[in-house]
Specification:
The protein has four domains: about 230 residues, ANL, N-terminal domain (Rossmann fold, 3-Layer(aba) Sandwich), CATH 3.40.50; about 60 residues, no CATH class; about 100 residues, Roll (Luciferase, domain 3), CATH 2.30.38; about 90 residues, GMP Synthetase, Chain A, domain 3 (2-Layer Sandwich), CATH 3.30.300. The relative contact order is 0.09. The protein is globular, with a radius of gyration of 23 Å. By secondary structure, the protein is an alpha/beta fold.
Length: about 500
């Protein structure tokens, strides 16, 4: 195999930066040579449990350097790895286990043990080997890896093989796992790194969830590919983040506005030197707490992308800010705007955004019908609406299938509606997003109760809380006698107008 894969990048970084630090997690500190050796051990551990080309590993845990070593081990084995959303309920996790059908599940007990146990019971008989992550006991992850050979583990791996699988929020029915290849990930890392300005001296804190492509794109994989340092924290703790930034001279971190505001407030009394951190797109929020960030990502923030496109593949940083709100495609990406028949529309006219290039995923795991529908004539159909402006930039107009944005989380109405209508008192339900000054949007449910049944808003919120991830549950519930319909489907625009919906990604349907 003459083409490099992600495993080769890891091995070459051990040669390029023999004294560089690859990863930090608490007391763990791996140099690049040490990390590459560790990946060999993890690959042998997985192989000893039957993992080979095309097999699957499920990470059922929070953020840890062990995910990175497992991902690189899977790259070496030509296997796939999926970081499950640890915030999900046992029922939701059981669906992922059954659907993904992993050979090995690496699981965590702390904080999420109850949901994991529920999921394991619900998926009994699936057949995976379960390996306990947060234990030092015999047979646990640490014990198994320690006893594996450190010798190089070489397989001729195709860089176009699937590696990272991320389950996307459902637009219809259940979520689906987007299969990202090693080439997808290397392309994204190279293109994004040119915008964020990372290099071998960069230090990134993996403070974003592993089940989101955003943490990998800004800046975990760009830093990895360039030979920098990835720091891992189990979950967000503002005090810990401040100390890590000061101690490790961190240059970037995946931080959302509520976390930034808490960190600023804390550091007003702590007085730690966090000047190494670049503000990125949140410069105005940081204010004078950080030095000015001159990177293209900070000056021309934003873009357009999807998990299925390995994150943002259209960026304002390419060519600077133009007329459109999303910028231009990266050099290894093509974009067209087409009508309902798949014909390209003239400049300035709206249509569906379709994409092809080295950033387009391989399709959804085990969803041949959906793949055939979305991947046509060599192009990925995004189901998003946009137009190309005269200067070549993209104006993203909104989703053709609705999405609610709650902080960093994507919430699709169909999934919440499905949960609501499973309640015996609910005849019909529609979900909209209402503007929220802190989290962009909050979820509001509009519900029709069945004749002879009763339920309060709190009853329905609790019903959802017990069945789906907490961030997806409605914050508000409105009751009406009948849903307004168009073509047999809820008239969401009418519901927005009546119940204050708006603030959707892309600026469409903004409440007034």
């Amino acid at each position: 195999m003459t083409h490099m894969n992600l495993s080769d990048v890891c091995r070459e970084n051990a040669r390029r930066f023999p004294q560089g630090v690859a990863a930090i997690d608490g007391d763990i500190r791996y140099s690049w040579p040490e990390f590459d050796t560790r990946v060999n051990q993890v690959a042998r551990m997985l192989a000893s449990h039957g993992v080979g080309a095309g097999d699957r590993v499920l990470w059922l845990a929070q953020t840890s350097v062990r995910f990175l070593e497992l991902m690189l081990a899977c790259a070496r084995l030509e296997a796939m790895i999926c970081p499950a959303n640890w915030r999900q309920s046992g029922e939701e996790l059981a669906f992922v286990i059954t659907d993904f059908d992993p050979a090995v599940i690496v699981w965590q007990d702390q904080e999420i043990g109850a949901a994991v146990a529920d999921a394991r019971a619900r998926s009994a008989g699936q057949g995976a080997v379960w390996i306990h992550h947060d234990t030092d006991a015999a047979g646990g992850y640490a014990d198994l890896v320690t006893h594996c050979d450190v010798a190089p583990f070489d397989t001729g791996v195709d860089p176009d093989s699937a590696l990272l699988v991320i389950y996307t929020a459902a637009t219809v029915g259940r979520p689906a796992g987007s299969m990202l290849s090693q080439r997808n990930l290397m392309t994204m890392a190279t293109m994004t790194g040119a915008i964020t300005g990372v290099d071998h001296a960069s230090v990134f804190i993996n403070s974003g969830p592993l089940f989101h492509i955003g943490n990998f794109q800004f800046d975990s994989l760009p830093v990895f590919v360039r030979g920098g340092t990835n720091v891992y924290v189990r979950r967000v703790d503002e005090e810990q983040l401040l100390h890590l930034i000061a101690e490790e001279k961190v240059t970037s971190a995946f931080l959302m506005p509520p976390t930034i505001l808490k960190m600023k407030d804390l550091n007003s009394t702590r007085g730690l030197d966090i000047s190494s951190l670049r503000a990125g797109p949140f410069g105005p929020l940081w204010g004078d707490a950080l030095p000015p960030d001159t990177s293209a990502w900070a000056r021309f923030t934003g873009g357009f992308g999807q998990t299925e496109l390995t994150g943002l593949c259209i960026l304002n940083g390419y060519g600077g800010k133009g007329i459109g709100n999303s910028g231009r495609p990266t050099p290894l990406c093509q974009v067209r705007i087409v009508d309902a028949d798949g014909h390209e529309v003239p400049i300035g006219e709206a249509g569906e955004i379709i994409v092809r290039g080295d950033n387009v995923h391989l399709g959804y795991w085990n969803r041949p019908d959906r793949n055939a529908e979305r991947m046509r004539d060599g192009w990925w159909h995004t189901t998003d609406l946009g137009r190309i402006e005269p200067d070549g930039t993209l104006e993203f107009l909104g989703t053709m299938t609705r999405m609610i944005k709650s902080a960093a989380e994507n919430v699709y109405p169909a999934e919440v509606e499905r949960c609501l209508t499973a309640h015996p008192a609910v005849k019909a339900a529609a979900v909209i997003g209402v503007p929220d000054p802190q989290y962009t949007q909050s979820v509001k449910a509009v519900v029709v109760l069945s004749d002879g049944h009763s339920a309060s808003g709190e009853d329905l919120i609790e019903h959802c809380r017990s069945r789906i991830a907490s961030y997806k549950k409605p914050k508000f519930v409105e009751f009406i006698d009948e849903l307004p319909l168009i073509g047999g489907r809820p008239d969401y625009e009418a519901l927005d107008a009546t119940f204050g919906g708006g603030g959707y990604p892309g600026g469409c349907n903004v409440a007034t």
